[in-house]
Amino acid sequence: MQKKNLFLLFLLLITSIVINGQTNKIPISGTVTDEQGEPLIGVTVTATGQNIGTITDINGKYTLEIPASSSISFSYLGFVPQTIVVGTNRVINIVLKEDSKVLDEVVVVGYGVQKRRDVTGSVMSVKPADLANMPNANIVQSLQGKMPGLNITNTGTSAEGSTKIRVRSQNSINADSGPLIVLDGIQYEGFLSEISPNDIESIEVLKDASSAAIYGARAAGGVLLITTKRGAAGKTDISFNSTFGITNIIDRPDMMNATQFYNFKKSRTGVSSFETEQFEKGIDTDWLDHTMQTGFSQEYNLAISGGSEKMRYYVSGNVSQIKGVAKNDEFNRYTLRLNLDTQINSWLKYGTNTILGYHDRPGEKANISNAMKMNPLTTPYDADGNISLQPNTDDMSVTNPLEGLNIQKEDVARSVNTINYLQVDFPFLKGLSFKTIAGYNFRSRLIESYKSSTATLEGQSKKGVAAVNNQYKQDWSIENILNYNHQFGAHGVDLTGVYTAREYVTKYHDNTGVGFIGDYMTYYQFKLATTLNPSDTYNKESALSQLFRVNYNYDSKYLFTFSLRRDGFSSFGANNKYGTFPSVALGWNMERESFMKSLEWLDRSKLRLSYGENGNQAISPYETMPTMSNEYYLDNDGNPLVGFYPNKLSDPTLSWETTRQFNIGWDYSFLKGRISGSFDAFFANTFDLLLYKKIPQINGVNSIRQNIGKTKSKGLELSISALNVKTKDFTWRTDFNISHSKNEIVNVGLFDEHGKAIDNVASRWFIGQPINIIYSYEFDGIWQETDDILNSHMPEARPGDVKIKDYNGDGKITADDMHIIGRKDPDYRIGLMNTLIYKDFSFSFFFNAAHGVTRYTEYMNTYFDGKSNIRQREWWTPENKINTYPANRDDSNPYGLNYFGKTNDASYIRLSDISLGYSLPKSVTTKLGISKLELFGNVKNVFTLTDYIGLDPEFDSDYGVPQTRTYTFGFRLGL
């Protein structure tokens, strides 16, 4: 009885506390306006730290009941949040100030930073933190489709990632068109997959010639500026992130099984006794099953940052281990980073960004290309369960796709990348500073492999094969930057002078040995080899540059930028080692004009106009020098001798490709930041292309590289960010971008007797057409039994043959009927991201698309070599009179057509990412003694819509690892 009374007393006490907590609330009301006194609609008003809130109505008014002694928080997009202690007040009116941090956001522009409102060039930014729920091992993959004009193609599937980067349109025909990569202010020559995405603070893309011209001879393909994280003064922050992923192949190619292959080959070329025997045994090998696996990835990242006003630090360690879907495909990344900034005294500052890397690519992966082609009537293993070295007795040269698993291989790269600076802020003249940046990058890579005499086919025939590839790369650069920045009333001036020097050295020492007495010493027995075949490579290039830039603004309203860069490069001819690259840009922040103040819906409207010149120096270090090739021979006495003959002539006039680009742009923001974005149009002309010119063979060679030819390009780029819905608990944001670009060949150095530019048909370069085109006969269906074939333009055809379109209408098929049927680069690209946040949950999905691209696919090739497996397909037969693919005969495609209409249309729409995240509420993390805990999951490559029948519309080849889908789970913990 006593226990019962105590229990009732306890319930009464709890009830009274709860009732008191519920009733001890006070009503608060008020109005929220902007600085002009205009009411703000939809302002979020919450009791700090509690699940109580509301939003303002159409008149900016709100009413809220909150516990006594609470604080109220007011937040609204585009305005500075405020928190007010209630106290005895019952009516609280708030004036929210416009948040200028978006306009005043610092943007890295090369050799310095600028406020975004003062930027005159076409510069796009992305912060990897915004993409944290869509993790990739390679940061480049995360950027695909996120910015207009940054064109990223996933060219294949591997543990490390395989991508191609282009900024805007391709302007060069033969030279490299990729962008310059700048890491923390210094040019970066390494693999982007070796940089941990967790260490990156922001990425800026310099797209137009004006913004990129400060990098002169390297900037014709655009510039990617990567800035890593730094510490901030205050509390030490500790973060630990981890992800785990599972990867499986999708859209697996439908290769022929044993029955299909046997019947197909029997009707086409006939089958061998071995194949008949295997077929009767019921052998049916799915080689892709044997060479592929479920991929797995795991990543751990620990970062510690903080500091004081005198010293700030950021230290991180990253471990990333990725196993691809091909057996033995593995990439391991281990990095350690230290970013340090020290204020030695009031005018002297020192800092370092140093990263140590260890990158392991162990083993030789299974050959997926060969696995697709393998005869399904063969078997991967022998009777003892070992990998069969010669699975096809009909062709003893065929290598087992699994043989790589028997190769002993180590592939380890070690790198040191350190960037150190010393900055002097001269005390005698405010705004004047001098900064010296010294960068040094060292990278070694040692690849060792051994093919044993018992477990590999080549090793068996050569009594063991050992190979070693020793790569050594280093580059250093020194950049001296003198800067003066000062505000004279409404006039802002920023002057920058730069003097830089750089050297890049590459060495390769390779050796291959064959014929060993045993396999035990693997690649540690070169001295015992019967035959050695060494080779060595040495490359050195150096550059020297000077730059002057002036930025001027009047009241942040009228903007002007001018830069002039002079570059010298060792690889060019003696007569043309230096080039000069100017640029000029204008900007107008229209919203700051008095006549625009009446447009209350307009937050920002900036017009940009720019012109600049950039160079492309993408040639090998000794391209302008004459070189010789060696040839071994025997003299009359049988003694071995070596001779030399010319294989390349010199051209002392060889110099940069130069691109002149004009850009007009508009940056906008409406409705208090609810809609924002940019629009750009560009026009570029590239001249002095680095092309090979045919010369008479009497010179010892038949071609010489010269600056000849011209191209031009143009394009449009649009980005829109919209805050569709914003309430107390729910936010929906959409980010959309679309870009269109087209290049065109003006001339390739060939002219007729009247001086008119003419085509180079052999190289598929056509005047007035894009650089990368498909030049072919045009597919016009399949000849049917009811067609009047004898009186047609192909009178020798048979029913079931490929019908070629008589393009010129002359009644016959000749080479003149070949024409351009498509382009290899998309007409336009689209990216669409939607992010929805409900309380502590977030959900996002991302589409990317490309349209107007034609791609070859091996799966539509009608040729059959009599031994390789091919994709299962539907053939024309008298009973199956299709109009899409010919009959199963060697002669049904007499002109070797490889393009069959829409099956070669590589346009696509892809749902690339779906992500779901959850953040523990602040009230919970505070009790746990942590700053944050976020959980998330992500799915990549959810689905793809395309007519393309090949492996993937983005891939370079149909023979390789198919497209994959990855499921990733992770968490982020902050202390």
Structural description of this entry:
- By secondary structure, the protein is mostly beta strands.
- The longest helix is centred in the N-terminal third of the chain and has 22 residues, at 2-23.
- It has nine helices and 46 strands.
- The protein has a 22-stranded antiparallel barrel. It has a five-stranded mixed β-sheet with strand order 10-15-16-13-14. Strands 3-2-5-6 form a four-stranded antiparallel β-sheet, with no helix packed on it.
- It is globular.
- Tally the helices: what do you get? 9
Shape from CA axes? globular
- Unreliable stretches: 1-23
From the N-terminal CA to the C-terminal CA, the straight-line distance is 49 Å
Q: Describe the biggest sheet?
A: 22 strands, antiparallel, barrel
Structural class: mainly beta
Computed CA radius of gyration, to the nearest angstrom: 33 Å
Binned strand content: over 45%
Helix content class: under 10%
Query: Number of DSSP strands?
Result: 46
Q: Return the average pLDDT rounded to an integer.
A: 86
